[in-house]
Amino acid sequence: MFKIIYLSFLVSVIFPFVAHAQVTNEDRIYDNNIVSVLLYANGNQLKDPVIKLGSADKLTLSFDDLSNRQENYKYTFIHCTSDWKTSDLNPMDYLSGYMEGDINNYQFSFNTLTPYIHYQLNFPQAQIRPILSGNYIIKVYLINDGDTNVMFTRRFFVMEPLVKIAAKVPYYPKNLNYFKKKQQIDLTCYTPDIFNAEPEQRFKINIRQNDRWDNAYFNLHPTSVTPNQLQYNYPDGIVFNSGNEPRYFDMKDFWYRSEYIQSITQLTNYYRVLLHTGYPRVGGQYETYKNNHGKMFIAARSNQNPQIEGDYAKVYFYLKMPEVKNAGVYILGQLTDWQLNSESKMHYNAQAHQYETTLFLKQGYYEYWYAELPEGSKKGNITPIEGSFWETQNTYTIYVYYHTRVLQYDRLVGIQKINAH
Predict the structure, then answer these.
(1) Does position 2 have pLDDT exceeding 80, yes or no?
(2) pLDDT of residue 200
(3) Which of 135, 202, 281, 327 counts the highest number of beta carbons within 10 A?
(4) What's the mean pLDDT when you consider all of the chain?
């Protein structure tokens, strides 16, 4: 893939080069000109990307392109299994209309240090829409959908509200060793008669803490079944580390230095934002505040249109602590696509005794945690750096799937989001 890039300084120095990796079914950017990708429902950046099957629900996809010319971006949908593998369905089985669509809505940035082109798509549209429930990937690409042409992928959900989910976080866990240390999910599903066939094998449940994927539970089967009721009573329960509320910084205005921002400097092609040095919070006191559970929110001053007038900054993160052996330290949150990879990994400065990294971010409000990732593991742990408090206001999202024998796919028959307290 070849693209004309006139912000060569930004691409090669400010925004690190990302080698084109194999395309996977996850939230991931594959081209280093693409930034600020958002996918949300009902015009609200903080709403999960969920569509009710057969409804008029719409999702909004938006992103910025740092290259200097308008591209004819295309997109398609990929149906996935409950654990996000590409399903065996033919696209004609789960799509109505054409197999791909075009992204024609774009605007050039206005009065910004960093020039970019802003793209937006509202879907489903009449010419291409999902007709089955389940997990989906929207894949955005150039010319054709070969791996080297894919710009980015994002997950979304098409749901049939057929199952009632009752869930809560009890004060006392089953394993009392977890008391005040972990949060347990008590869960019961109430199913209609149409799902009475082999419920132990066909029903599967996924559970996510906040918007994380690395520590999610996948494909949990019921432990006991009674007529129209599924119980999930595991010996130690379904438990998550409680963690802590996210860190945050407000970068909606480059003329105002908000809390946790040390300095803001205007340079030729972007702003430079230095955050105050962070420290581990383990062993400290729990502090509660209203938060968005690790999400980001693109916004600017009241007299600006953040879509095309929002500017960009190279943001410097510092975490003062001893170097961790046999593990990496990462920035975890929507600002890094919830990925624990080379783009979110911090580097240790032995002279300054701190972890450091930079991210290229648009004006807005950002939340995040610092997570450790042991060598050979895919599951991050925020507890060693952020601490763990049972009072933490985590959200948990429960997804219920039923594997149907007709067409052989995982129907998404229920979603329930609960707060820990």
Answers:
(1) no
(2) 83
(3) 135
(4) 92
Tokens 């998404």, residue located: 412
CATH architecture of 8-159: Sandwich (2.60)
CA 215 to the chain's CA centroid:
13
CB 358 within 8 A of CB 273: no
Own/partner contacts of 327-331, CB < 8 Å, gap of 24 or more, are: 327/372, 327/373, 327/374, 327/375, 328/372, 328/373, 328/375, 329/355, 329/370, 329/371, 329/372, 329/373, 329/385, 330/370, 330/371, 330/372, 330/373, 330/380, 331/357, 331/359, 331/368, 331/369, 331/370, 331/371
Same fold: 8-159 with 164-241+394-419 = yes
Q: How does pLDDT run across 212-243, given as a tens digit for each residue? A: 999 999 999 999 998 889 999 998 899 999 99
pLDDT digits (tens, 9 = 90+) for 117-142: 999 999 999 999 999 999 999 999 99
91: its two tokens: 């696209």
Give the pLDDT score at 186. Answer: 95
Top-level class of domain 164-241+394-419: mainly beta
Domain ranges of the chain: 8-159, 164-241+394-419, 247-386
